[in-house]
């Protein structure tokens, strides 16, 4: 197993509630949609998305870091030391199964 996993994400800031799930075909390929309450100001939406992703994947927030897309809605996050079943969990979240 690799030490890191790259996750493409499409962030929807300013949402009424935090939601992780759904798919967006973006510039990094199929991306997981994360809606967050935070506004797209001073990195607040990115930070909220990082924490929501960690929570949805069941990993510590410190294990998730931004790789690309600080000023974009389309982002790449790195997940360090991902659990073996993480790829299946991501597929289910993108396809809207589960949460």
Describe this structure in words.
With 99 residues, this protein is of the alpha+beta class. It has one domain: YggU-like (Conserved Hypothetical Protein Mth637, Chain: A, 2-Layer Sandwich), CATH 3.30.1200.10. Helices cover 23% and strands 36% of the residues. It contains 2 helices and 5 strands. It has helices at 44-57, 86-94, and strands at 4-12, 19-26, 29-35, 64-68, 74-80. The protein has a 5-stranded mixed beta sheet. A hairpin with a 2-residue loop joins β2 and β3 (29-35). It is globular. The termini are far apart. The model has no long low-confidence stretch (mean pLDDT 89).
Question: Summary?
Answer:
This protein is an alpha+beta fold and 99 residues long. Helix content is 23%, strand content 36%.
- Return the string of H and E elements: EEEHEEH
Q: How many beta-strand segments?
A: 5
Q: How many strands, which pairing sense, and closed or not: the largest β-sheet?
A: 5 strands, mixed
What are the segments in which pLDDT stays under 50 over at least 5 consecutive residues? none
Features:
globular; about 35% strand; about 100 residues; Conserved Hypothetical Protein Mth637, Chain: A; alpha+beta
Q: What's the layout of helices and strands?
A:
Elements: E1 4-12, E2 19-26, E3 29-35, H1 44-57, E4 64-68, E5 74-80, H2 86-94
């Amino acid at each position: 197993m690799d030490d890191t996993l790259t996750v493409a994400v499409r962030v929807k800031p300013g949402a009424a509630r935090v939601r992780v799930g759904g798919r967006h075909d973006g510039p990094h390929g199929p991306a997981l949609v994360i809606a967050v309450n935070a506004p797209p100001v001073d990195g607040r939406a990115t930070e909220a998305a990082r924490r929501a992703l960690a929570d949805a994947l069941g990993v510590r927030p410190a294990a998730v870091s931004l790789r690309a897309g600080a000023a974009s809605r389309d982002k790449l996050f790195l997940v360090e030391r991902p659990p073996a079943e993480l790829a299946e969990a991501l597929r289910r979240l993108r396809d809207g199964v589960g949460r």
